[in-house]
């Protein structure tokens, strides 16, 4: 045996090592950890408590205005609602189709629907499938409309609050909404006309591919 | 600590560029040291007189594969975060043929041509100039071939998932394939050497 080993060249020895590792690999299992879901409950609970899994609507508005493109914005509502109005740059992936979607695990994904319920469910599904950067748009589209599209002037607001409101007015204008300076009009919602979205949401469920191809060689 | 480091945000984009620069230099040195900066060596692969390209490529594939496989099995690397190119079947077959023909005729692949430029090979400079011109032509005619470019889209496919095999089995088969290729290459080279020896004599 000893003689046999000493007669081998370095290359042959390396080849032997590769063969042994290859044989071990036959029994070592799946490197992707299989399809079964393992959930670290503590991890999930902590990120919920710490609010680290939420993105506020004002932050999102800011990112869109600044043309940040490092996230995927997912509209979980039906296609009809999506076509009616959605946040600019969002793509429509109804909750039921989420698991068969082409989202990548290394993407920053921001989920929203009308409120927080559907996006929380989607968040859990993706998190349990080991997606790393999954976030919920806090308050959903309802909150987006309230805070970004049609912000109301603060009642007896401090100087800071008023300055902030001036800022939000501009933001609202950018997204085609309008600030409600008269804070007494609280029931005017039905009259509010949503901005038409046909110019902003060019993205659909069909993978555009362009963005993803930036990576790799 | 888990890999891939960049995806786990151990460093930002700026730092990643510096690291990429260092890795790029190391890669270039490795290619040059391996003899991949000379068109004659690269082209001789296609005439089966020098099997160095095949040996180096298979060594790299097996090393990287075993490393990634075992590091992810023990949980150090998260393979799902490693980028995989998406597949468009027919366009990739056509593209591969074009690249292969270019490889045989020009004696370089895009990466090795850069290495050869760095060592001042004039044929490589011409090759790279041609490549850049080709990229320009491709960009100009892209609208007319865009449909074909996007056809046959299969998403991200891997051999294990496509053929429904276990990952371990594929790893084992690739190792066997590589060892077989090494043995065949050694044998073929000896044969070729004997043949050319006879001709010379």
Question: Main traits of this protein?
Answer:
heterodimer; A: 217 residues; alpha/beta; Oxidized Rhodanese, domain 1; five-stranded parallel β-sheet; 8 helices; 9% strand; elongated; B: 201 residues; mainly alpha; two-stranded antiparallel sheet; 71% helix; 2% strand; globular
List the helices and strands and how they pair.
The complex is a heterodimer of chains A (217) and B (201).
Chain A: H1 2-7, H2 10-28, H3 41-49, E1 54-55, H4 57-65, E2 71-75, H5 79-84, E3 90-92, E4 108-112, H6 117-128, E5 133-137, H7 140-149, H8 159-174
Parallel strand pairs in A: 1-5, 2-3, 2-4, 4-5
Chain B: H1 13-33, H2 39-44, H3 52-73, E1 87-88, H4 89-106, H5 110-118, H6 122-149, E2 153-155, H7 159-163, H8 167-200
Antiparallel strand pairs in B: 1-2
Helix pairs in contact in B: 1-5, 3-8, 5-6
CATH class category of chain A: Alpha Beta
The third-level CATH topology of chain A is: Oxidized Rhodanese, domain 1
Q: On the 0-100 scale, what is the average pLDDT of chain B? A: 87
Shape of chain B: globular
> Which CATH architecture of chain A would you pick?
3-Layer(aba) Sandwich
Count, helices of chain A: 8
The secondary-structure class of chain B comes to mainly alpha
Low-confidence stretches of chain A: 183-191, 198-213
The CATH superfamily of chain A bears the name Rhodanese-like domain
The N- and C-terminal alpha carbons of chain A lie at a distance of 46 Å
Radius of gyration of chain B: 20 Å
In percent terms, what proportion of residues of chain B is strand? under 5%
Q: How much is the radius of gyration of chain A in Å? A: 25 Å
Helix content of chain A: 40-55%
Name the pair of protein chains with the most residues at their interface, and give those residue counts: A-B, 27 and 33 residues
Strand order of the largest sheet of chain B: 1-2
Q: Biggest β-sheet of chain B: count, sense, barrel?
A: 2 strands, antiparallel
Oligomeric state of the chains in view: heterodimer
Q: What is the string of helix and strand elements of chain B?
A: HHHEHHHEHH
């Amino acid at each position: 045996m000893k003689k046999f080993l000493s007669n081998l060249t370095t290359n042959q020895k390396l080849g032997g090592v590769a063969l042994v590792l290859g044989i071990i690999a036959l029994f070592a299992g799946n490197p992707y950890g299989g399809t079964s879901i393992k959930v670290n409950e503590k991890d999930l609970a902590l990120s919920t408590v710490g609010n680290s899994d939420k993105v506020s609507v004002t932050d999102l508005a800011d990112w869109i205005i600044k043309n940040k493109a490092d996230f995927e914005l997912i509209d979980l509502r039906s296609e009809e609602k999506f076509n009616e109005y959605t946040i600019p740059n969002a793509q429509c992936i109804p909750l039921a189709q989420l698991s068969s979607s082409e989202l990548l695990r290394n993407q920053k994904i921001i989920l929203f629907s009308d409120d927080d319920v559907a996006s929380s469910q989607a968040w859990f599904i993706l998190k349990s499938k080991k997606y790393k950067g999954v976030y919920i748009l806090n308050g959903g589209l309802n909150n987006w409309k309230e805070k970004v599209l049609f912000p109301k002037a603060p009642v007896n607001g401090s100087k800071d609050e008023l300055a902030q409101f001036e800022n939000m007015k501009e933001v609202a204008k950018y997204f085609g909404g309008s600030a409600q300076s008269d804070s007494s009009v609280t029931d005017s919602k039905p009259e509010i006309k949503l901005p038409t979205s046909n110019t902003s949401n060019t993205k659909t469920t069909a993978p555009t591919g362009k963005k993803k191809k930036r990576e790799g060689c | 600590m888990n890999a891939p480091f960049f995806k786990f945000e151990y460093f930002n984009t700026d730092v990643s560029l510096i690291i990429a620069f260092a890795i790029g230099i190391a890669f270039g040195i490795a290619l040059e040291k391996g003899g991949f900066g000379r068109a004659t060596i690269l082209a001789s692969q296609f005439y089966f007189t020098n099997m160095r390209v095949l040996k180096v490529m298979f060594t790299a594939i097996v090393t990287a594969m075993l490393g990634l496989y075992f590091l992810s099995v023990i949980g150090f690397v998260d393979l799902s975060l490693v980028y995989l190119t998406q597949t468009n079947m027919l366009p990739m077959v056509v593209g591969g043929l074009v690249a292969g023909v270019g490889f045989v005729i020009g004696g370089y692949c895009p990466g090795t041509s850069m290495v050869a430029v760095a060592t001042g090979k004039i044929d490589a400079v011409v090759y790279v100039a041609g490549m850049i011109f080709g990229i320009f032509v491709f960009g100009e005619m892209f609208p007319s071939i865009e449909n074909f470019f996007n056809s046959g889209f299969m998403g991200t496919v891997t051999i294990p998932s496509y053929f429904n095999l276990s990952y371990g089995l594929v790893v084992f088969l690739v190792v066997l394939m590589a060892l077989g290729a090494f043995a065949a290459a050694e044998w073929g080279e000896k044969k070729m050497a004997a043949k050319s020896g006879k001709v010379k004599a």
